[in-house]
Amino acid sequence: MKEALRRAEGSSSLTSEALAHTPSAPPPPAATDVLTRWSQLLQVLRRTLPREQFETWFRRATLAEVRDDVLLLAVQNTFARDWLANYYRDAIEDAAREVLGTPHRIEFVVSPELAAGARAQFSSVDDEARASDAAAADAADTAARGPGALGPAALAGAVRGTPAEARTREPVRTLSPSSDVVLNPSYRFDNFVVGPCNRFAHAAAVGVSEAPGKAYNPFFLHGSVGLGKTHLLQSLCYALLERDAQTNILFLSCETFVNHFIAALENGDLQKFRSKYRNVDVLVVDDIHILANKERTQEEFFHTFNALHSAGKQIVLSSDSPPKDIPTLQGRLVSRFKWGLVTEIEQPCYETRMAILKRKSRERGSELPDEVARLLAERIDTNIRELEGSVTKILGYAALARAPVSPELAREALRELFTVRHGAPSLDDLMRELTEHFNVKPADLQSRRRTNAVAYPRQVGMYIARRITRMSLEEIGGFFGGRDHSTVLYAIQKIENLVREDAGLGEQIRQLEQRIRSTVS
Ligand code: ADP
Ligand code: MG
Which residues pair with 285 in a beta bridge? Predict the structure, then answer.
């Protein structure tokens, strides 16, 4: 089995070498033919596409096969396949017609090995072209192109960009092709708002990007959802690539790691799996808490961790909780995760929320007036993603309504935030509505009295409290005059029966509950 595996791996690396055209492993004649074709195609594509598009999408692609009327391209992953198929099919078909003289259909196969082997060949075509005719290449970059051949980014550039701009556009920074994300241009240190809640996390991430594998290894960033972990991780990667574009960064969600591992187990490909994970400069695993309860994957991750760490490679992890709170995480992983730097990203304070609202709205072309920003900052206090969503909603609403952004408009645009969605109403909200609806006093509801005039409203109160808060039966009982949990349970069951059996009463109670939910102070 092992031998077979080794042979399979050997042959795949031979293929890569053949494709890379190294002198030590001369490719067989058929392969040479395919290689020549690919070089020719690359030359045409290089001439007809903007350089950064060409470099991004064709660096890790290669020609796997030429059939009668089909060209089979090997690409590094499904993302590349979809992107090439959607945006570059026409360009490749045109190039094929030019090179081969007849129309060919383009098909794709996902093969990271073949695609990785393609790099050297790509570089030689690219270097040659640059050296031999830099001026012509530049001119070609700016030549008019059919929009069908380009991706959205290129389209934006083609529509807006002047030739000079096209050349000064940011260079492409890419993660390892096995990564399951591409770097998001809006996740940079530059547009991360720093406040007391995240200052340390931010500084630590910058520190890691300046000395990978040294000071903070692993770098473990934790915090609850929507607080900017992925943003910081991506910023870190981008900064690393800015320092050295060749840095091989594998960026994955933990889920992908788990899936790859399971697939490798099933296919008996563990060796390949291991070499993929262990031959990188930086391994980033987002949402590592997913390892909870996955014993075998934890085991594997432990070995991956050790191999990388002892080779001085940087490991970056994010999680929704600190290492010790990840359920069933093996002790030895917990202790390793704490070897380097464990940092928390906390909930943003009011000032930071204001700054984020201002910044995000400015980025979207229209800064929120203070009054509106305050309104949002007061209500959305636990999740920056939601804060961001609210800005998008309000600005979109204002644009549609062709109205200026005002507090009224904000309330209208975010109705549900100002009603149901803002967390759970408090028991005080409940008490206020209950006493008004039933015309009783709070003291009565919290007293020992059991007359029907107070017992029924009290029972309705308990029923609604259970539905709209996360309080336990004991806590609810405590609030309603120190009653025990069985009394509360009895009350809830009684009202449930009433609601079920009496449509009119049920409707009244439902409306009361709705009112309480929407009168959150
Ligand atoms: P997490 O990974 O912690 O769930 P994300 O990194 O996905 O959170 O952040 C959610 C959204 O909030 C992203 O759009 C991100 O850009 C934004 N965000 C979070 N923190 C900040 C910050 N300090 N400054 C600017 N944007 C932020
Ligand atoms: Mg995230």
Answer: 252, 317
Q: What is the DSSP letter of 194?
A: P
In Å, how far are 211, 236, 276 from 312, measured between CA atoms?
11, 17, 17
**Measuring CA to CA, which residue among 142, 140, 76, 137 is closest to residue 108?**
76
Residues 292 and 338 in one domain: yes
Residue that finishes a domain, picked among 418, 447, 472 = 418
Query: Which is higher by pLDDT, 416 or 460?
Result: 460
Provide residues with CB under 6 Å of ligand 1: 187, 192-193, 198, 223, 225-231, 356, 384-385, 388
Q: Are 19 and 27 in contact (CB under 8 A)?
A: yes
CB proximity list for 369: less than 8 A, separation 6 or greater:
405, 406
CB within 8 Å of 355: residues ≥ 6 apart: 193, 195
On the question of pLDDT at 242 being above 90, the answer is yes
Give the ligand with the smallest distance to the CA of 287.
2
The model's pLDDT over 436-492, given as tens digits with 9 standing for 90+, comes to 899 998 888 988 888 888 999 999 999 999 988 877 888 888 889 889 889 999 999
Give the distance (Å) from ligand 1 centre to CA of residue 228.
3
pTM above 0.85, yes or no: no
144 in a structural domain: no
Ligand with smallest separation from the Cα of 392: 1
Q: Tell me, in angstroms, the distance from the centre of ligand 2 to residue 233's CA.
A: 9
Residue 318 near residue 233, CB atoms below 8 Å: yes
Q: Which of 181, 193, 231, 238 is the best mutation target for the ligand 1 pocket, counting ligand atoms within 8 Å of the beta carbon and taking the most? A: 231
Helix axes 485-501, 503-518, angle to 10 degrees: 120
For the segment 155-167, the average pLDDT, to the nearest whole number, is: 35
> Is residue 281 in a domain?
yes
Residue 316 shares a structural domain with residue 257 = yes
Q: What value does the mean pLDDT of the chain take?
A: 82
**Are both 23 and 70 inside the same structural domain?**
yes
Among 164-178, 366-380, 424-438, 466-480, the range of highest mean pLDDT: 366-380
Please, which residues bridge with residue 344 across strands?
222
* DSSP structural state of residue 444: H
**98: exposed, middle or buried (C-beta count within 10 Å: 0-12, 13-18, 19+)?**
middle
DSSP-derived letter for residue 424 is: P
Helix and strand tally (H, E) in the chain?
27, 8
Q: What is the CATH number of the domain that holds 365?
A: 1.10.8.60
Burial class (CB in 10 A: 0-12, 13-18, 19+), 439: exposed
Identify whether the C-beta of residue 380 lies closer than 8 Å to the C-beta of residue 386.
yes
Distance CA 275, CA 295 (A): 21
Query: Which residue range is the domain that position 14 belongs to?
Result: 2-126
The number of distinct structural domains making up the chain is 4
Domain end call among 126, 144, 173: 126
Measure the CA–CA gap between 174 and 185, rounded to whole angstroms.
11
